[in-house]
Structure formats: C-alpha cells, structure tokens
Design goal:
- The chain is mainly beta and 215 residues long.
- It has one domain.
- 5% of the residues lie in helices and 44% in strands.
- It contains one helix and 16 strands.
- Strands 1-2-6-16-15-10 form a six-stranded mixed beta sheet, with no helix packed on it. It has a five-stranded mixed beta sheet with strand order 5-4-3-9-13, with no helix packed on it.
Length: 215
C-alpha cells in the first residue's frame, strides 16, 4: 500500500496492543493506490465493527474517521450502452471507477468478512446514506462476471428500479472480494455504512461515515 500521507497513529496503536489496551484503529490521511478493504467487518467479544483494512507495510485496521480514499481522475470510464448498465448512468456519460481488477495506478478497494465467524454470518451490509456529494453525485458498487455483465450490490441512483440500500443476499462470513466502486462526478462524497451479523445475537456495527475524494 502506498500512502500520500501517513500519521503516527499506527505506532500508537501498536504500543497500545503491546500494553494490552484496547487499541482503536489508526488513521491515514489519504490513500489513493494499492490494496485496501474499504468495508472491513470484524467480530470480537460479541461486538461487530466496521473499518478499513490496509495491507502495506502491514495488515492494519484504519479508522474511516480522518481517512480519505481518493480516486484519481485517470479512473474515468464511459458508461457502456445496454439496459444492464442503465443504473450506472446514461450510456456515453463519464463515471469514475475504482476497478474490480487491480490497477497499480488506482486504489484497489474491496470488502472483508474474514474475521466474522461462520456462526455469526452472513453479514447484512447497508448503505445508510450518501451526503456531502457534488452536484449530480451518485455512488454505485457493482461486480462484473466473466462476460463483463454488471451486478449492482449498492446504488444511490434514484432512477426507477436503481436504488439499492441493502446488499442483496448479504455477504458470507469469512470472505474477501473486490468490486467496482463508481462515482458519477468529481468531488467529495460522504457515504455511511452499517454492518449487521445475521447469525448469533444479530449484533450490528455503529453507522460509520467514509470519505471519498474523486478527481
């Protein structure tokens, strides 16, 4: 993982762990390239948490508070034609996408439930809200299959048949995957997510705000 900036909070978190204290996730100022699990769901001592996992220089949990996930202008693509893509935007329009496949010049964002026991799964993921968006700003998270066809997992597009606030079919426990994180306009987005363990006692994480900077 390469960072534009990195705070000393990582060292503080490590020190707390050595002392046996409950360490809060560290925070990185801005992340714009490399592997990151933006929706990292952890379960411990009966509680569910939602944070960001980075992979370099070490596996670290980062707090979404004070952390910005930046998507460069070079991520711009054109929305394909066809009804399957209509909920991403009008055919021929521009969207900015952190891609499902790794691209060394862009952030490679995924989701992670590896620390959720099978007995607590699956995990219900909710897009609770989208705020502080630029004019015309929309967010969508989708995956593509071997034929390139999209399946939308979450979508803030208000057009008929497009909004998805709850991940269809939930996310299995013990998993790790990547998708396409799409934004319709440059600017700053605040996205709010919440995770709920569907098994066991059905515990939920707090609602967590994430900041994405596009462009």
């Amino acid at each position: 993982m390469r960072f534009v900036h990195r705070t000393l909070a990582l060292a503080a978190a490590a020190t707390a762990a050595v002392l046996g204290l409950t360490a809060t996730p560290a925070a990185a100022a801005t992340m714009e390239t490399g592997h990151v699990d933006a929706l990292d769901v952890d379960y411990a001592v009966g509680a569910l948490t939602l944070d960001i996992r980075s992979y370099s220089p070490a596996n670290d949990d980062l707090s979404p508070a004070g952390t910005t996930l930046r998507l460069r202008s070079s991520s711009a693509i054109t929305v394909p034609s066809g009804s399957a893509w209509s909920c991403l935007g009008a055919a021929g329009s521009t969207v900015y996408v952190a891609p499902q496949a790794e691209n060394a010049g862009l952030i490679w964002a995924g989701w992670n439930t590896e620390d959720v026991p099978a007995a607590q799964g699956p995990v219900r993921m909710e897009l609770v809200g989208v705020s502080s968006v630029p004019a015309g700003g929309r967010f969508a998270l989708y995956t593509t299959n071997a034929f390139g066809s999209p399946t939308f997992r979450l979508n803030s597009n208000s057009a008929a048949g497009c909004p998805i606030s709850i991940w269809p079919g939930n996310i299995g426990a013990g998993g790790h995957a990547h998708g396409n994180w799409a934004f319709s306009a440059p600017g700053t987005y605040t996205l709010s997510f919440r995770a709920t363990a569907q098994g066991g006692a059905g515990v939920a994480s707090p609602t967590v705000n994430y900041t994405f900077q596009i462009g």
